[in-house]
Automatic annotation (TrEMBL):
<dbReference type="InterPro" id="IPR000648">
    <property type="entry name" value="Oxysterol-bd"/>
</dbReference>
<dbReference type="Pfam" id="PF01237">
    <property type="entry name" value="Oxysterol_BP"/>
</dbReference>
<feature type="compositionally biased region" description="Polar residues">
    <location>
        <begin position="167"/>
        <end position="188"/>
    </location>
</feature>
<dbReference type="GO" id="GO:0008289">
    <property type="term" value="F:lipid binding"/>
</dbReference>
<feature type="compositionally biased region" description="Basic residues">
    <location>
        <begin position="151"/>
        <end position="164"/>
    </location>
</feature>
<protein>
    <submittedName>
        <fullName>OSBL5 protein</fullName>
    </submittedName>
</protein>
<dbReference type="InterPro" id="IPR037239">
    <property type="entry name" value="OSBP_sf"/>
</dbReference>
<feature type="region of interest" description="Disordered">
    <location>
        <begin position="144"/>
        <end position="191"/>
    </location>
</feature>
Length: 232
């Protein structure tokens, strides 16, 4: 986010190669790091702090010395593990023997879902996604409600078949219509667009919960639009 110059060694002339505008600087991604006092011993900023300090002071000799000390400590630790037969188990990465590559253990490669995913954050080196879910109590109640209606539907169909089997055709009537009609096929419940297609009608609690969720969803969409306007 600063100026970059090209220096022509033969002529000594310098020209500006890159000079970002204030708009470009404002769009720069913010850097979020763990506070130094909260970092563990093996995090890069703490581990290489003496090398970094020497580089910032322009002391190349000191930086080289500190780098040698650090790498020698790592070699000695690896040698001790081999002698003791101790296996090194990385905390955040795992080795793929087929490709001989290391992969992050907690990678999440699924597409971002703007309707369900709220934010992505890192905690203790693990990337996590905060998601928007139906409350557990509503989910359990919805499942119970659906199961009850399915049971009633099956019982109704079974009773109807029994009556059809037991009824004998009358000699005085050629009416072929059954005394009960075949129940309509069951419609699957769907929460697309925040709407449910039920067998009969939703119980009052489900209806209230759905209305509440639709209000929350509308509020979230309004906030997202406001954020997009602010970014623009």
């Amino acid at each position: 986010d600063g100026e970059v110059h090209i220096n022509e060694l033969k002529s000594g002339n310098a020209e500006v190669f890159w000079n970002p505008t204030s708009e470009v600087r404002r769009q720069r991604l913010k850097r979020h790091i763990v506070l130094f006092e909260e970092q563990t011993d093996f995090e890069s900023e703490r581990l290489w702090q003496h090398v970094t300090s020497a580089i910032n002071k322009g002391d190349q000799h000191k930086a080289t010395q500190e780098k040698f000390v650090l790498e020698e400590e790592q070699r000695n630790a690896a040698r001790e593990r081999r002698e003791n037969g101790t296996e090194w188990k990385p905390l955040l990465f795992q080795h793929d023997a087929a490709t001989n590559e290391w992969h992050y253990k907690y990678q999440d490669l699924r597409p971002w879902d703007p309707l369900n995913d709220i934010a992505q954050f890192e905690k203790d080196g693990i990337l996590q996604t905060m998601e928007r879910h139906l409350p557990t109590r509503m989910s359990n109640h919805k499942t119970t409600c659906i199961n009850n209606q399915i049971t009633r539907h099956k019982r109704s169909a079974k009773d109807c078949r029994r009556r059809k089997t037991s009824d004998q055709p009358s000699n005085h009537s050629q009416n072929t219509e059954s005394s009960c009609s075949t129940p309509e096929s069951v419609q699957e419940l769907s929460d697309d667009d925040g709407k449910y297609l039920s067998f009969e009608s939703l119980c009052s609690q489900c209806g209230k919960e759905m209305n509440h969720l639709k209000e929350i969803h509308s509020a979230v969409l309004s906030l997202q639009r406001a954020q997009q306007d602010i970014h623009r």
